[in-house]
C-alpha cells in the first residue's frame, strides 16, 4: 500500500513531524524500531535529565505538565512522548526497524524493515535523531582486557562498574553527569578536550534558556554571526557540573587522552593514571548504512541536507543538530523545524503538480 509520507523515527522530531502532517491533512505513517514510544530515551543512562526545563521541553499542541523551572528526567520525557502520540492519535508502527531505504521507479521510496515487511512512500522524513552510534576512538584497542570499556550508550549506573578508578573521556553534558554519578562509588578522572565554556543556569532569576529564547539567539541561523559563535562555544548550562564543582566533589580533571597501554591512560600534559573502567562520552555519529539513496549521504556516511531538505527529491530530515539553528538540537526546536519541513514538502508537491 502506498503511503504518501513515511516518517522514520517516533522520537520528538518524528512525532512533531506527524503533528504538522496531520494538521496539514496529509496521510502518513511513523515507524520506529522500539517496542514502546520513548524507548530511545529509556535506553540511556539512568540519571539522565533533559538540557532544558519543562517550559522549554514541550512539543506543539501539548504542554509538559509539572514544575516549569525543573528538568524532567529521561523516563518522564519518554512518558510524555507516549502521551503525545496517543493524544493526537498519531499512526505509529512500533517494532519496525528500517533495514534498507531505496528509491524505486517513478521517484517513490521503498522501505524494507528487519521483520521483512515493506512500505512504499512518495516522500520520506528521516527523524532518527542525532544520538545513533557512539563514537569510540582508536585508543579503545590500546587498553588491556582487564579494563572495562563502556560508552555513554551502554553505561547505565555506577552499580555496573567494578571497583577501581573510572576514566570518563569527554567533558560534554553526558560525560560530566556520568562523572558526578560514578564519583559516589569510585575515584573518577575526567579527560577534557577543548576548553569548555558553560552558561550560567540562571540569570536575574530566569532560566538561561528564557534569555536565549527572548533574545532570539536560539533561532539565529547557523551561518549567522551569533550562530557561528554559539556553535563554536558548544556551551550548555552549568548545573553544578562546572570544573570547580567537579573538583570539589573529588573528580580529577585532566587534559585530552592521548595514549594508553594495559590499564594505564596517558594525557596531553604528560601525566598518567592507572584505571579500571573507561567510559567513552565523546559524542555520536550517524548510522546511514540503511539509506541506499544516491546523493543522500556524503562519502563518510553523513546525511546531506540544507535546513532539512535533501538534494534527493522527496527526502527530508527533522531533528538534525544545527539543522537551522541552536534550537534544532533541543526539544523546543523539533516543532518549528518540523513545521518548516512539512511546509517545504507541501510546497514541492504543489510545484510538481503545477508542471
From TrEMBL:
It comes from the Bacteria. The keyword Oxidoreductase applies. GO terms for molecular function: flavin adenine dinucleotide binding; monooxygenase activity. Gene3D superfamilies: FAD/NAD(P)-binding domain. The keyword Transcription regulation does not apply. Pfam families: Pyr_redox_3 (PF13738). Keywords: Oxidoreductase. PANTHER family: FLAVIN-BINDING MONOOXYGENASE-LIKE PROTEIN (AFU_ORTHOLOGUE AFUA_4G09220) (PTHR43539), FLAVIN-CONTAINING MONOOXYGENASE (PTHR43539:SF78). This is FAD-binding protein.
